[in-house]
Amino acid sequence: MELDLRAAAEHGLDPATASGYDAHPPRMGFFTDTSVCIGCKACEVACKEWNAIPEDGLTFTGMSYDNTVGLGADTWRHVAFVEQPRRLGRQETHLADVELPAAVTAQAAGRTAVSLGMPESRPPDGHPHPVRDMEFRWLMSSDVCKHCTHAACLDVCPTGALFRTEFGTVVVQEDICNGCGYCVPACPYGVIDQRKDDGRVWKCTLCYDRLSVGQEPACAKSCPTDSIQFGELTELRERAETRVRRLHDQGVADARLYGADPGDGVGGTGAFFLLLDEPEVYGLPPDPVVTTRDLPAMWRRVAVAAAGLLVGLVGVTVIGGGR
């Protein structure tokens, strides 16, 4: 049986069709616009509540307000707080398409903005400074399983616990998972993980149960700024490209899409992002490649080698018998 990777790449099939669905809905996914993420963690809470995910440690990690650090078996949505010694504000980058009321503008006229010493509770030297001395910004981003077009976790699963849904998403059936863990190193993003108490793997399902009854995923439903947008993947990509062009026109030169290109190493992802810096800054691989890409060629070489060995053994047997 051909890998999902080869079926999709060679025959131009979408993931659901390549997986055997004759009639299926449009491919669904996430577009996460990090430029409007406020780090509220509502998506993390909603994800845990809806999916009954165990608490994973409400501890102070020392990494800003990031108490979960990364995705895992008990963290299906992870809000990253990336602190940088660079400026980021509406007065410079116009990230928010909002005009202040005239009364507010008039009231603020003539006032001098000051730095409060973020991220500390007071300025380092105890005295406020003009805003020009404040070089600090947060890049906030809600990470999630990418639901790859070419999903290596599907290729290596020996039990069928991982499967492709009719929406093009990738889901784990925990009652079928045997805890082998093959999918963990296969994921190029380090998303899928084993739960320590039973060894089975867990990850975002893109709320498959909610999708099946026409509802949007819990994280997107709870996002107050529409940083997490859910919908048909084709329409989301068009929306994202428009958003990037608008930001470029407004001077945000670093705005870029990550995971939206069907020609990348995983065939594009079902959950993609608008970033304001290099992917590595957000803990994302810059050029991910499906880890099972070379499996068909490897098996062909194994078959050729085995056939050669068999021919050699037959030859030795025939020659030896003739003597």
Task: Please describe what this structure looks like.
With 323 residues, the protein is an alpha+beta fold. The protein is 30% helix and 15% strand. It has helices spanning 4-11, 15-18, 42-51, 90-93, 102-108, 152-156, 183-186, 208-211, 218-222, 233-249, 295-322, and strands at residues 28-33, 78-84, 114-115, 129-130, 137-143, 162-164, 170-172, 193-194, 201-202, 228-232, 256-258, 271-275. It starts with a helix and ends with a helix.
Summed up, what is this model?
With 323 residues, the chain is of the alpha+beta class. It has helices at 4-11, 15-18, 42-51, 90-93, 102-108, 152-156, 183-186, 208-211, 218-222, 233-249, 295-322; strands at 28-33, 78-84, 114-115, 129-130, 137-143, 162-164, 170-172, 193-194, 201-202, 228-232, 256-258, 271-275. The protein is elongated, with a radius of gyration of 25 Å.
Structural class: alpha+beta
Beta-strand content: 5-15%
Number of strands: 12
Distance between the termini: 43 Å
Count of alpha/pi helices? 11
Please tell me what the overall shape is. elongated
Biggest pleated-sheet summary? 4 strands, mixed
